[in-house]
Amino acid sequence: MDLDGYRCPHSFADYVLDWGARIVDDARRMLKDLTDRTQGKPLFVSDELPHYGTVLGELFHKLVPPEPTGKPGRPRKPEQVIDTDLDYATVHKTRQGAQVVKVERKVVHGSEQNILARLEQSPSHIINTAYVERSNLDWRLWDAHLARKAPTVARSMRWLNAKFAICVACYNLIRPHETLSRGADRIFRPKTPAMAASVSDHQWTFSELLAYPALCQ
Q1: How many domains does the chain have?
Q2: pTM score, two decimals?
């Protein structure tokens, strides 16, 4: 089972997390969920799994009708044109054993100039997948059901989803983030990813989280 998702580089909040077999339907579900939760188009960075580029093209495009030819016959189908403000890049890592020996970056959609300008406003100034990789590591360490080659087995996806939703809420709303909580003076002032993302104005408690009314589908 593979984890996938989006962790904000500014607030360290996990906006969306999903797991599956890394097939196109999994990528479609995850990216649709992400775009529903965000305003505008974030900078998308992933590994070279082709499904991400396919789904981003489905989500962000315009249909341009062809010019009429004046000839008889069935008209051609509209051309799918990717939005010019979509920025998407990939990272390819070459490994020798467990060691990364080479990292190659490629701009798939958008211009390199626009992507570099967006990276200048980000804590990370290069194209990388470090944030989602750290998110994956965190959840595999914190949740035994998601650990690789572990004896623990989730017997119900329904209960696994419910438990994981509470875990993600605890991370975003309750648990202070070390980097966010220490300013230039290094004094610890509790600050959660949700506070950094301006989703909440205070650190939640477990009682507050468990008592919060949720929309169940």
Answers
A1: 2
A2: 0.85
